[in-house]
Amino acid sequence: MTGPAADSVLEAVGEALAAEARLDRARETIALERDDSGALIMTAELNSVAEKRLALERAAAVAGVASIVDRLRIKPATPMEDKAIREHVCRALDADDGFWNLALVETVEKEDRVFRDAAGEPAGRVAVEVDDGVVILNGAVPSLQHKRLAGVLAWWTPGSRDVVNGIEVEPAEEDGPDRIEEAVRIALDRDPFVDASEVRVGVRGATVRLTGAAADAEQRHMAECDAWYVFGVDDVINAIELTQTPS
């Protein structure tokens, strides 16, 4: 789609991104264009999941944007090859007690390879594929919390540039703020770098508000990242206070 109408939509999206203070300099790195169907294409390598989610949310709210082709990727903490990322995610799932009764599968060149059979009566399966640093999760699990925790563990993998969580929940469950709050709490409890006992979580709609205390700025930042990693979270307000004054 080209012409004045397309140009006006791209301009409006650019203005919406510029108005979001938390995007800071990230706005300058995001390339915007529209394809022949009119879909907005967003391309960039960003510093955090927060920047990615905020950019997508602000763009989606602009009149005239009906669909978005998401090519926003995150700069990995540690560059890793796809095979290493895939194995890391599978090992993380295998080590978590929450997935003991789920089969774990590696998808390599469209072929599924069993990484680990389920223990006891199988309750579902998680398939892990990685393409150019993007972790793609598929399969079926018995709860939203399984789906969300799998996504968090994938984001925790140092080489991950994005996580596409296509896991189905069977039977389907009704989602809502309480479920998101529970998922954020689970992520914080599992994070060894965060003192979860000092952090309180509140959710309104799909916006998470974190309060409480953290020993330093790094723990405060990690708690916020954990909230952003949860599938379904649209925004995070970090009101955690520091118990130590920076020197």
From TrEMBL:
Q: What SMART domains does the record point to?
A: BON
Q: List each copy of the BON domain by range.
A: 5-76, 101-171, 176-244
PANTHER family (alphabetical) = BON DOMAIN-CONTAINING PROTEIN
Protein name per its UniProtKB record: Transporter
